[in-house]
Write a structure and sequence with these properties.
Oligomer: single chain
Shape: elongated
Order of helices and strands: EEEHHHHH
Number of strands: 3
Largest sheet: 3 strands, antiparallel
Low-confidence stretches: none
Number of domains: 2
Strand content: 5-15%
Mean pLDDT: 89
Distance between the termini: 28 Å
Structural class: alpha+beta
Number of helices: 5
Strand order of the largest sheet: 2-1-3
């Protein structure tokens, strides 16, 4: 989804959906910035947070489709439920949470 970006008075970068559905969270001290300006404003702390949460984004796009689970559950297919569970555990193993998280 396309984003529009802002920098606040503290120098923190924020992004909201371009479609206007999140405009209500934009604060008065946020200044719009172009996508090409983001890197210049991203603080080391923000970059560290982004990287620390990278495992979550990778997991999110790697988990099997929820429809597989629903189908197995509706049918009462224990083997398919176990297969779904194993796929999820494999994703967790591939993208572990960082230490101390």
């Amino acid at each position: 989804m396309q984003m529009k970006h802002f920098v606040d008075s503290q120098g923190q970068v924020h992004g909201v959906y371009f479609d206007g559905t999140q405009d209500h969270i934009i604060k008065s001290d946020w200044t719009p910035i172009a996508d090409s300006e983001i890197d210049a404003h991203v603080t080391a702390k923000q970059q560290e947070e982004f990287e620390k949460n990278d495992y979550y984004r990778k997991r999110l796009y790697s988990y099997p489709e929820l429809g597989e689970f629903v189908d197995a559950w509706v049918k009462g297919d224990d083997a398919a439920l176990e297969e779904y569970k194993q796929k999820c555990l494999a994703v967790k193993a591939k993208y572990p949470k960082p230490e101390g998280f």
